[in-house]
Design brief:
Distance between the termini: 98 Å
Radius of gyration: 37 Å
InterPro entries: DnaJ_C, HSP40/DnaJ_pept-bd, HSP_DnaJ_Cys-rich_dom, HSP_DnaJ_Cys-rich_dom_sf
GO molecular function: heat shock protein binding; unfolded protein binding; zinc ion binding
Structural class: alpha+beta
Keywords: Metal-binding, Zinc, Zinc-finger
Protein name: Molecular chaperone DnaJ
Order of helices and strands: EEEEEEHEEEEEEHH
Helix content: 10-25%
GO cellular component, one term: cytoplasm
Shape: rod-shaped
Number of strands: 12
CATH superfamily of one domain: Urease metallochaperone UreE, N-terminal domain
Strand content: 25-35%
CATH topology of one domain: HSP40/DNAj peptide-binding domain
Number of helices: 3
Largest sheet: 4 strands, mixed
């Protein structure tokens, strides 16, 4: 090459105040100091080829989304050796549980009778179903916290928080309506008279 194997080209220039020497990368060997007699058909003279590899990545317990995990030696080739691969963590949503930091949230739907009289249910946990007692008189939005059933974090483990959501029936049988009206009368709650909404809908259809 033009550089004589040094990888750089020296040029002497004469200026107004004397001469000076400049150095630049050899345009022929691109700084390599040598030329290939024949171009490699695989890398096409670039000296490297791209290929895919599988890397085993260890994910510590309780990792947050968007955290970066470093995998040494799986990056691009560099003069000092291959660089590192950085993996950004994306967490697939759980079908039943929501995440709040190290804590998990489960939304439990129960009926009016279960809320009023109490019940025993099973809620999903990371290691399997967990029994839970719902006491009588439980209201909508009440939270039951199960310590140690959440995600691990340095120094401990989060909780599973069960949020109660009352499920109000929309299609009641005549017998169920009769029982509810009897209950409302017993506790002194005022409800719409029987057939009121049906008559109201009929009025607007006219």
């Amino acid at each position: 090459p033009t550089c004589g194997g040094r990888g750089v080209v020296e040029t002497y220039r004469q200026g107004l105040f004397g001469g000076f020497l400049t150095r630049s990368t050899c345009p022929h060997c691109k700084g390599q100091g040598h030329l290939l007699a024949e171009t490699c058909p695989v890398c096409r003279g670039r000296g490297r080829v791209a290929r895919e590899e599988r890397a085993r990545v260890r994910i510590p317990p309780g990792m947050d989304e968007n955290r970066l995990l470093r995998v040494p030696g799986y990056g691009n080739l560099a003069p000092g050796g291959p660089g590192d691969l950085y993996v950004r963590l994306k967490i697939r949503p759980h079908p039943h549980l929501e995440r709040e930091g190290p804590h998990l949230v489960y939304r439990l739907k129960i009926g009016l009778a279960q809320a009023a009289l109490g019940t025993r249910v099973e809620v999903p946990g990371l290691s399997g179903p967990i029994p839970l007692e719902i006491p009588p008189g439980t209201g909508h939005g009440e939270v039951f916290e199960l310590p140690g059933e959440g995600l691990p974090y340095p120094g401990g483990r989060g909780a599973l928080r069960v949020v109660v959501e009352l499920s109000v029936p929309k299609n009641l049988s005549p017998k169920a309506k009769e029982l509810l009206r009897a209950y409302a009368k017993e506790v002194g709650e005022e409800v719409a008279p029987e057939g009121f909404f049906e008559r109201l809908r009929g009025f607007f259809r006219k």
